[in-house]
Amino acid sequence: MALTTASRRPELPTPTLIRALTTRTPARPQSQTTTTIGPVAACPVPDGGSPSKPGVLNDAGRVREFATTAQPPAATSPAEAPAEQTATSASASQSQSPGRSQPADERTAPSTAFAARLLGEAVRLGMRDLVLCPGSRSQALALVAAELEARGRLRLHVRHDERSAAFFALGLARETARGVAVVTTSGTAVANLHPAMLEAFHAGVPLVAITADRPPELVGVGANQATVQPGVFGPLVPFVDVPAPGGLDASDDDRRARELAVSITDTRGALHVNVAFRDPLSSALPDLDAVLGEAPPARRERATVRENERVRTIDPADGVPTLVVAGDLAGPDAERVAHEAGLPLVAEVSSGSRFGRNLVIAYRELLGHASPSPELRDLVGRVLVFGHPTLSREVPALVARDDVEAIVVGPTGGEPYGPPARVAERVDRIEIARNETPRSTDVRAHRGELVDPRAWLRAWVRASHELVAAASSDPPAPDLNAVVSSAHAERSRFARGELAVARQSVTRELLVDAVWRATWPHDRLVLGASRLVRVLDGRATGKPLRVHANRGLAGIDGTIATALGVAAASQSDFAPSAAGVTRVLLGDLAFLHDAGSLLAGQGGEPAPRMQIIVGNDGGGTIFDGLEVGNSAGRAALERVLYTPHAADLRAIATAYGWHHIRAATRAELEAALTSHEHERIVVEVPLPR
């Protein structure tokens, strides 16, 4: 069959080693199989184009081809296997318990030998977490992972549901910035990884799906749990299709596993590794000391300045009114540039740059059509975009303006950000010049005149502060003199005022303010794709928090599982935030969509400290504020978009072993957020539609 490399992930910062097939035609075994193997480099998407077509490109400009003589047994399924073969396999399995590490000999099945080399080498190269879903075809990988966990070399996380497992792995990868693998058996188990794999690609998160597969002779013939798995995640996610171990010389299998381990630990985005396994599917383990005891190879550190790095120098005194925008996963570099250049900073809440004195919180109001300061909005002449902005329509509109020079900085996920015709330049890094040039002192200068950068920054920050203060949910400061007053009426007035504040019904604004206020740098905050994330983004003050949100595709799927992964990573031994708590803020539909992920702490695994704060408004109220809210009739809107429900969140939480609290007032909410009585709490906050 014809074999080539798969589609490559665009905009990868560094080359990624993959081996792949673009097609895998279900067919009977052939006597000769050829696979192309080689490091495939990043292939940027041309402006306005689509991901590159299949091709071969590696750092040495070469493709290695291994011709293999594949001679699988005539019958490989248990139902068709000869009795002698079945008896031999059973005898070997009984003589050495699977999972027990033994010196490699004839009793080590090729599947187990390959799994040991693949996972052992990945651990040696730095992989620390692996998420596993039980299954028969993947049993060799599972038993090796269990042994690595027993040796203290791997943090193993076992999950029943593959969809949930993939998002759990995504959370681990987001928090650790390391490649995390999720292992499944064949069939529909693989398809359940698709949502998380797409999110990983679009967000640029290193997530690796290692999927066990049936050998070619069992594909396309109606065999159980057998389908065409290579390329199942579509053209965006690169894949590696690995022939069943044992058909090659053992040294070739060994080399292939080593190279795959490099791909797994070096990937900067989504990667699919599909491995076919023939019977016997497991045996006694080989000696893992032979793999783990080897010294890791010398790894080149990523240099601060890379070869062919694109650098743009910005002179803050050049008179061009400039705005810095930080989208999802921008990191702190956006804040650094804004601070050093003295520029206003628009930082989304999950950007990693939502702090500092240059922060402009009310950016949507200031950039919108009804801006209270249109002269600021209209005067913008340049925008520096970091990360992947997704939380407003105002930022894309700004980037698309004809009179604005848009410069996109660094990686923006799996795809380049911004319309190609509107992005003037894409660079890897911004440098700040220190030149002094003549300046105007008037921030309201007409276009074409110089603008004083200090006045420019001051005007943006002041306008934002005024808008935020006007929208504050904080109650008026209490009259402390009334507490010590000798007049009973004064003391009673003070008490009634404080009681009224405590009994105040929770609004969306009060809810997000309370969650943000309760969260500290050693905590983690995970945001669902709901109405609440936008409310928070328009109000959250500057604070250096680690905030996670699946904004690659901004779907509601997998929010709880992602948060559990974030919590497991951030609260692990020796983690700098091991004493913190992970809070999840999401809507009721996002909670119900991922309720199955509440099953935590099973099989002896530690369950992390978590608070899931659910804003329950009875359905999808986010649609009320979109165009459809005005164009659709009330009945149709309710039926197909708002989708009201009457789910009992308390019963759901209790069924999965979580404590449930209903917080309808300010006092109840603040008490729930600061409580340490229970380690896992679902805080249900009823909200008006």
TrEMBL record:
Listed cofactors:
Mg(2+); Mn(2+); thiamine diphosphate
* Every Thiamine pyrophosphate enzyme N-terminal TPP-binding domain range: 124-225
Keywords of the record, alphabetical order, are: Magnesium, Manganese, Menaquinone biosynthesis, Metal-binding, Thiamine pyrophosphate, Transferase
- A Pfam family it matches: TPP_enzyme_N
Name the NCBIfam families for this protein: menD
Bilayer-crossing regions? none
List the EC numbers from the record.
2.2.1.9
Q: Where is the composition biased (Polar residues)?
A: 22-37
Residue ranges, compositional bias (Low complexity) = 67-98
Q: GO annotations under biological process? A: menaquinone biosynthetic process
Family the entry assigns:
Belongs to the TPP enzyme family. MenD subfamily.
- Write down how the cofactor binds this protein: Binds 1 thiamine pyrophosphate per subunit.
Pathway participation:
Quinol/quinone metabolism; menaquinone biosynthesis; Quinol/quinone metabolism; 1,4-dihydroxy-2-naphthoate biosynthesis; 1,4-dihydroxy-2-naphthoate from chorismate: step 2/7
| Subunit comment | Homodimer.
List the HAMAP family: MenD
Name of the featured protein: 2-succinyl-5-enolpyruvyl-6-hydroxy-3-cyclohexene-1-carboxylate synthase
User: GO molecular function, one example?
Assistant: magnesium ion binding
Region feature Disordered, mapped onto this chain? 1-109
Query: What domain of life does the native source organism fall in?
Result: Bacteria
Q: What does this protein do?
A: Catalyzes the thiamine diphosphate-dependent decarboxylation of 2-oxoglutarate and the subsequent addition of the resulting succinic semialdehyde-thiamine pyrophosphate anion to isochorismate to yield 2-succinyl-5-enolpyruvyl-6-hydroxy-3-cyclohexene-1-carboxylate (SEPHCHC).
Catalytic reactions of this protein: isochorismate + 2-oxoglutarate + H(+) = 5-enolpyruvoyl-6-hydroxy-2-succinyl-cyclohex-3-ene-1-carboxylate + CO2
